């Protein structure tokens, strides 16, 4: 298997470039896959597992593109200059590049991890083709993701003995159009507001399409999917999506202190993608 091909993509919507890795398929092409990374530090913690899965999918015949969104990883721009809508445009740029490399005849899958899944409905709706979905430990409400991120700042402030009400101050600052520094990231209003309103609701199906969704949660001890996932899966089923769901035994690698692997997740993903 050849090494992934690194490339910088011109992003006309922001006049700079995005870094991406293309994993070419081994053997006949079975499909195209675009990876939608998680939010902030979770992206860095997940790099190894994302790379392992991308290689495994390539060995199974999929062309996989991993893209760093604006202000993230090796892409141009500062995190504080990014926007939710700009990240959606970055994802569409990734699909466009995939198509130039392998054509668009093979089926397309949007593969999200955590908050990356929240980008998928908007990306799918903007595409001019149908697509399938692969969700890893999906965040179902962007509002909760934003609350948890802001909590990192308020928790640190409380430990320093600072006043309460900091969360409201953070929101006021964002509303006024200014960035807020949290855990080493300059959170911009354009990302915060987009994330807060994002939801993992099923996008309208393209005509005559039969989209599939592979929904996987990762846990060391759970015996069934979370209630939030069960509720959301029902909504997707009601919209005509073919759902396949599973639990994979493993650590929450996107937030562990040390970089950890979840090998069962690779196996489960392969089974659900088959």
- Gyration radius over CA: 18 Å
Kindly state the mean pLDDT as a whole number? 95
Give the percentage of residues in beta strands. 15-25%
Largest sheet: 8 strands, mixed
Whole-number tally of structural domains: 2
Cα-to-Cα separation, first versus last residue: 20 Å
CATH topology assignment of the largest domain: Rossmann fold
CATH superfamily of the largest domain: Alpha/Beta hydrolase fold, catalytic domain
Question: Helical region count?
Answer: 9
Q: Class of the largest domain in CATH?
A: Alpha Beta
Q: What is the level-2 CATH architecture name of the largest domain? A: 3-Layer(aba) Sandwich
Shape: globular
Order of helices and strands: EEEHHEHEHEHHEEHEHEH
Overall helicity: 25-40%
Low-confidence stretches: none
Number of strands: 10
Structural class: alpha/beta
For the biggest β-sheet, the strand order reads 1-2-4-3-5-6-9-10
InterPro entries: AB_hydrolase_fold (IPR029058), Hydrolase-2_PEP (IPR017532), Hydrolase_4 (IPR022742)
Domain Serine aminopeptidase S33: 46-124
Protein name: Hydrolase 2, exosortase A system-associated
Pfam family, one: Hydrolase_4
């Amino acid at each position: 298997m050849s090494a992934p091909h690194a490339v910088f993509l011109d992003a006309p919507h922001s006049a700079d470039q995005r870094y991406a890795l293309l994993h070419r398929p081994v053997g006949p092409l079975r499909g195209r896959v675009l990876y939608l990374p998680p939010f902030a530090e979770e992206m860095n913690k997940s790099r190894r597992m994302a790379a392992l899965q991308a290689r495994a999918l390539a060995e199974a015949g999929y062309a996989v593109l991993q893209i760093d969104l604006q202000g993230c990883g090796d892409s141009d721009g500062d995190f504080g200059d990014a926007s939710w809508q700009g990240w959606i445009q970055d994802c569409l740029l990734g699909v466009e590049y995939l198509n130039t490399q392998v054509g668009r005849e093979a089926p397309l899958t949007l593969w999200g991890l955590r908050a990356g899944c929240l980008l998928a409905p908007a990306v799918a709706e903007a595409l001019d083709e149908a697509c399938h979905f692969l969700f890893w430990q999906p965040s179902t409400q962007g509002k909760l993701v934003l609350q948890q991120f802001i909590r990192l700042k308020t928790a640190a402030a409380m430990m320093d003995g600072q006043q309460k009400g900091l969360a409201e101050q953070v929101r006021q600052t964002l509303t006024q159009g200014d960035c807020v520094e949290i855990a080493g990231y300059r959170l911009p209003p354009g990302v915060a507001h987009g994330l807060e309103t994002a939801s993992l609701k099923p996008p309208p199906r393209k005509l005559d399409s039969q989209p599939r969704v592979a929904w996987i949660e990762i846990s060391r001890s759970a015996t069934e999917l979370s209630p939030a996932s069960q509720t959301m899966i029902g909504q997707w089923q009601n919209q005509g999506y073919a759902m396949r769901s599973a639990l994979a035994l493993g650590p929450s690698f996107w937030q562990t202190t040390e970089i950890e692997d979840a090998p069962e997740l690779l196996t489960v993903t392969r089974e659900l993608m088959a």
